[in-house]
Each structure stands twice: as structure tokens, then as C-alpha cells.
Amino acid sequence: MSEWLVDVAGLTRAFERNTALEQVDFRARQGLVYGLVGANGAGKTTLLRHILGLLRAQAGTVRVFGLDPVRHPVDVLRRVGYLSEERELPEWMRIDELMRYTQAYYPSWDMDYARELVSTFGLDVKKKVKELSKGMRAQVGIVAAVAHRPDLLILDEPSTGLDAAVRQDILDAIVRTVADDGRTVIFSSHLLDEVERMSDHVTMVHEGRVVVDGTLETVRGAHQRSHVLFAARLERAPVIEGALAVEGEGRSWTVIHNGALDRFRASVALQQGEVVQSREATLEEIFVARVGRTAEPAG
Amino acid sequence: MIKSPAAAVLWESWRLSRFSLVTLMFCSIVGGAILVIALETRGERLALLLAAFVALVLTPTWTFRLRKGGGFPMTLGFTRPIATWILVGVPMAYVAASAAIVFLIPTLFLTAAFGLSLPLLPAAALIVTARFVLLAASWWTGSTAIGVTGWMIAYLLTIRRVFHGVAGGNDPSAGTWVENLTVSADGLGVMALVAASSVGLTVFGVARQRRGDDRFGSRGRATPGAAAARRFAIVSRLSDLIRPPCPVSSPLAAQAWYEMRTGARVLSRGIMSAMGFTLVVLVASPLKEESGGYFYANTALVWGLAVPVIAGARSVLGVRRTQGKTYLSPFDAIRPAGTGRLVGLKVAIASAGILLSWVAMVTAFWVLPTDFMGLGPKRDFTDELRLATSVELVLAALIPPLFVVTLMAYAGAIHALFLRNPRGVVIGGQVVGIYLVGMIYALATDRVTDSAMLAQLAVITVAGVVVTLHLYRRVLSERILGARGLTVAVALGILLGAGGRFYWPRVGGSGADAGVASMLPLAVVVLVPLLALVLAPWSFARIRHR
């Protein structure tokens, strides 16, 4: 088997006339946490659904554990845990029934671990799903996703709409999953601080394309946030080499940029400017610079 | 630009229903034409009944499927700055008017095409009034149980009025049916009053739902089993009393347990239908024939047999369409189980639910004083059973389950294909409909020779064989079915085919020794289940792995 647990290559997917993914490459190695970030409709869920085999690749290939998840759903899904964004669970089931039901599908199900998680979350196993709050549903969903100790845990927006306490529960479950040797987690999120805190590797998707992909250190190391002062007032945002987003007015401008810092400084100097401060950009700043609106450059 | 809230609601209603309305009119025209051509004078009445049925029963179901559960369906309107009477009154008026159009256009077409003299306007007035009453019955309260009961009563009364009008009571030879349907000025006044009262009641009930006073109002999520649980809370509570633990010994057992619970709606509806049938027969028995006893009991019988089939057909694969997207619950989709097995169990358990419901109906039929219904003394049936050979008895026991399994497999497959590509399926259905009208017309007027008929059958058979083989190849190459699943599918298909082969001569078909011509329909009988049993997993896989 290849060294990659998940290997997506040249994946393209369109829904009628809308291209959701275009030539996407994504790889995940064993034992790491992968954060998938992007705006709404960027294609994160579509990518996750391809990995689960819920969507068929129109072009390109998807391999999970070396297998095509559409052709081998049983072999792939048996080793995967999944928490969907909708957290859809059968309303009529009691929590204990849900545990037993899920157990039947996974030979590796660890009932002690499931009970421990249920107890940690303070859930009443005799309650039906329809009686649970949104947060409780998420907690039940995460128990069902991790208690068989999957090799690959996929979480689609696990924290959306949850309060801080439940969010912490979910993050703890991820940490514990990763603590098991060799487990891999792929999760999508809007909460960039969460991604920054949890991920070893970040993939940023924008309009169906991967715009940033690398380890958290690499991604952050490759992007800086610099404060630039110019000799004269500028009416429009300056054009600077490597700039992804430029904000400010007059002589003072803040720039999010990538590439070598020396070349950036040289480009600023050419326009009678000076870099007065520079630091690593946060993931949120990178995200906004890559995905959000940028100031229209001068000239 | 839409200039007023009322115009906006009207536009929304039109956008939601326009395709369905055209489809319904087409069905009425095709069905009516077939009936008129095939049955001549009797067909004329039945065509009118069909058009009335489509307009009365199908229009609302197809038009406002925005919400599961009971009550007013257009709940998105609750947050709009619009008076409740406009929110309710406009769609009610629209549905009533569209029902009249769905009735009038096909019947006018049939009148012109075949030179019929149908009492259209009085019947349309009756349909419009009934439409208001039926909408009020299902919209005024969030309780589906109350809504359905009210709907059933209104429906029975209306259909009885139409039935008696069209059939001239129970005497099919009566020639006064046109006069029977005529409505006097006083009658029109009463109808207007009934319609206005229905609107008033609905506005009152929806206002309560809008401000949250209706304790039956459902605001739950559309999740598997949720809608069924809400609709049949009593049944749900009863089933909670018998709650066997989920088996963990194998995924198959666990899935069977799950499907039995989620598929319980088929059985619960069947049992409720059987109970309803029992109640109707008990109430209708003293009425006897002259007071409509026949009609009520017969309608309840047909309804009771049809309800579980309809429920099963719509829910068999658990696929649905939400906000324009075809949807299979992720909970279902990510189970580490093969598509063939998932579909096989879903179809098997829905079929079992239908069969058990039918057993409940037959039991009710057996114990009730139903001889008066014109269905023949039960003793005759018992004698028939005594005379049957053991082979016939085995087939009699075997064929209904296999037939229901095939029916459910097709229903699930067509539903899944319809959800993926509604227009394609409807247009395909219309093409088939037009072909059938043409064929029946040609047969009725002796415009088709035996050789032409044989050629058509041969083409259909060959096409069926090609499509079936293609699908078997696809399901194998896509690993949707394994060798075991495929063997089961083929065995079931052959069994049903064998049943058809056995019964074919008994229903008027020629025997195997009568040549190729008479064997072709038999080949179709064998092909039908063989195709169904791969079409269902194949269409399900198109949604599970889009």
C-alpha cells in the first residue's frame, strides 16, 4: 500500500454547471491531523464526501487505504469514523440503541471507550435522539464516530453552532483519537483558531481549488504580515511583489504577503517605502488574504 | 416585478406546481383516452371519475410538499410580513382553481376528441368545493391523525357524491348520471358557503400554528423515521412497549432491526388502514346498499390495501429530495455495508410490512360481515382453496410475496430515479403513456395485425433483455452486487417467472406449446422481476455514490 492513507489526485467535480472541485490534489499521511479550511461553498464538504465514497469522481482518482471508496465501500468505511455537518441520526433511537447498532458494523468497536465518552459528556443513554439538544447530538455523533477507533476520522464542521463546552468535548475526542498510535484526522472548519490549534497540516480550498497546502509551520512560515511606511502619501494601494492583501491609507499600509522577505523589502524600497515591522501571519490573516476581498492595487 | 404579497404567494404556488399540473393533466388525458377507447360507454364515466380523482387527490400532494408532518405546509411564510388570511387564502384558492383546471382541460379535450357529453361544470364546482374542504381538513391542524381523519371523511363524502352521480347509484345501466351530477342554484350557494367556511377554519387553525399555539405543530428535523414518529405518535408509543434490543452479532441482523423500525410506517399505516376498514364496515353494515354501505366498505377495502403499498413505495429506499437536492441520510450512506445488501433488506422489509398489512386486512375482511359488499360469499373462496392442488397452494403462497418484492423494487428504483431526474422520468412515463394509448386504440379498432403485434412484443422483449443484461453487467463491474446477491436476484426473478408461467394459461394466456407468439408475453413476465432486482440497487447506488 502507498504511504498515503488518503490520496486524491486531479479530482474534478461539477454539479450541473457549477464546478465544485477542479483539479484538486490532497494527500493525508498516517498519524496526522489535517485541517480543511475555506469559505462556504468552497468545496470542503464535496472533497470529504469523495473521500467517503459518497460522491463519484468525475475526473481524477480518489484512494483511501489504497482502495476506491466507491467500489469498496465496506472495506473503506469499516476503517473510517465520520461526523456529518448535519449530525443526522435516527430520531427514534435511544443512545444505547445507537451504540449497539453502530457496534454491529464495526468489529473493532470498543464499548468501554464508548461508555466512558458517554459518561464524560454526561449523556443519558436511555434518551432518544429526538430528545437531545444540538450539542448533545454532536456529542452522540462523535461517540459513534470514534468508539470503533477508526484509522481515519473525518469530521465535517464539527464545531459549527456549538457552545464552547461542547466544542471542547469534540476537540478532546480528536486529541484522544490522535493519541492512539497511527490515527489520522481530517476535519473541516470555519473556526480558524481551532484549525490552528489542532492541525498538523492545513489545506485551504477556494472556489474548488486548493490554494494553500502544507504543514501548519510551512504555511505560516511562508506568509508574513508586514507594516510598511512610504515616503509620500499614496492615493491607491501599492503594488508590491508577493502581496496577497493590502490595507491602509496615506503613508501607512499593512500587507499580507508570501515569498522571501528580502525580495518583499526590495520591492517596497523601490517605491520609497520601508518595512517597519514584520511577523508571521496568523491562519485567519492568511485565509482572509487568500479568500477574502483584496484592495485593488495601484496602477 | 412582483407587486404585492398576495401576488408573491401566487407566484410561489405557480412555480411549485406548474410542472406537476401539466403532468397530472397529461395523465388524465392518457388514462381517460385509454378508458374511452377500451371500454366505450362505461369508459366515458370512468374517464370522468379518473379526471376527478386526479384533480381531487393528487393535486395537493404533488403541489405543496415543502414540509413533512401535518399542518400548513408553507411554513416559510410564517416569518414573512404577510397577513395569515393571505398566506392561507391565496394558496387555497390557487389549489382549488388548479384542481378545476386539472379536471376541466383533460375532460374538455376528451369531450372534443371523442364527442362525449360530460357534465363538466357541475362536476368542476363540486371538485372546487371538495378541494377547499380537503385542504382545510389537512391544513387546519398540525395533528396528522386529526387531519387525515378529517380528510378521509371529506374525501369519502365527496367521492360518494361523484360516484353516485356518475354511476347512477350502484346501477351501472342507469342512464341518468348526467342529471345526477347537475347542481341547482341552491346547491351552488351551499357549496360556496362550505368553501368559505373551510377557508375560515383554515385561517383560524394556521394562525394558531403560526403563533405556536397548536400543540401538534411539528417543527422537527427531517430525519429518518422522524416524520413517521410524529405522524403516528400513538403507534410509536405502542411500539416502544415492544422494543427488542438491537442485535450486535452481525451487521445484517442490526440492519434488519433498523429497517424494521424505520420501515414500521408501512406496517403501522397498514394496521391503521385495517382498523379503519373494520370501523367503516361496522358503521356501514346497517346502511346496506341503498344508503351507500357498499360504496363505503368497498372504498375502505381498496384504500386499506393501497395505503401500505403507497407508503412503502414512497419510503422503501429512504431517499428523499430536500430543497432541490436528492438526499440519502449520511447515517444510511456511510454504513460499512454493500449497496446490494442495503437495498435488499430495505425492499424485503418494506415488502414484509405490506404483506403483514394485507394479512391484517384479510383477517378483518374474514371476520367481518362483508358478504353484502358484492365481493362474493367467503364460503366460495374456502371451497376454491379446498379444490386447489398442492402446487397451486404453494404458488398461491409464494407468488404474492415475490410480486410485492418486485413491486417494491420497482417503486424504490423509480422513486430514486425520479428524485435524481424528475423531468426525465416523467417525460419517459409520458412517452410510454402515449404509446399505450396508441396501442390500445389500434387494438380496439383492429388497426394492428398479429404480425405487427408480434413484432412489437419481440422488440420490447429484446430491449428488455438488452437493458437487463446491461444492468447486470454494470452492477457486477461496479461491485454493487456480488455473486451471492446476483444469484438471489436471478433466483427470485426465475421463481416469479415460473409463477407467471404457471398462472399464464389460467388467466387466458396460451400455453407453452402454442408457439413463439404466446411465449413472448411470458418472457416479459420473467424479465420484469429480473430487471427490478438489479434496477433497485443500481438506482440506489446512483444516489449513494453520486
Walk me through what this model shows.
The complex is a heterodimer of chains A (299) and B (546). By secondary structure, chain A is of the alpha/beta class. Chain A has helices at 44-52, 73-77, 95-105, 111-121, 134-146, 164-179, 192-198, 216-221, 261-270, 283-291, and strands at 4-15, 18-29, 33-38, 59-64, 80-83, 152-156, 184-188, 201-206, 209-215, 223-234, 243-258, 273-280. Chain A contains 10 helices and 12 strands. Chain A has a 6-stranded mixed sheet with strand order 5-6-7-3-8-9, sandwiched between helices. Chain A has a 3-stranded antiparallel sheet with strand order 2-1-4, with helices on one face. In chain A, strands 11-10-12 form a 3-stranded antiparallel sheet. Chain B is mainly alpha-helical. Chain B is built from 20 helices and 2 strands. Chain B has helices spanning 5-39, 41-63, 84-114, 120-139, 144-167, 177-180, 185-210, 226-231, 233-241, 251-262, 264-284, 293-315, 330-333, 339-367, 378-387, 390-420, 422-444, 450-477, 483-503, 516-544; strands at residues 319-322, 325-328. In chain B, strands 1-2 form a two-stranded antiparallel ribbon. In chain B, β1 and β2 form a beta hairpin. In chain B, α1 (5-39) packs antiparallel against α2 and α16 (390-420) packs across α17. The A-B interface holds A 52-56, 70-74, 76-78, 80, 82, 84, 86, 88-93, 97, 100-101, 103-106, 129-130 and B 220-221, 223-226, 229, 236, 245-251, 253-255, 257-258, 261-262, 329-331, 333-339, 478-479, 544-546.
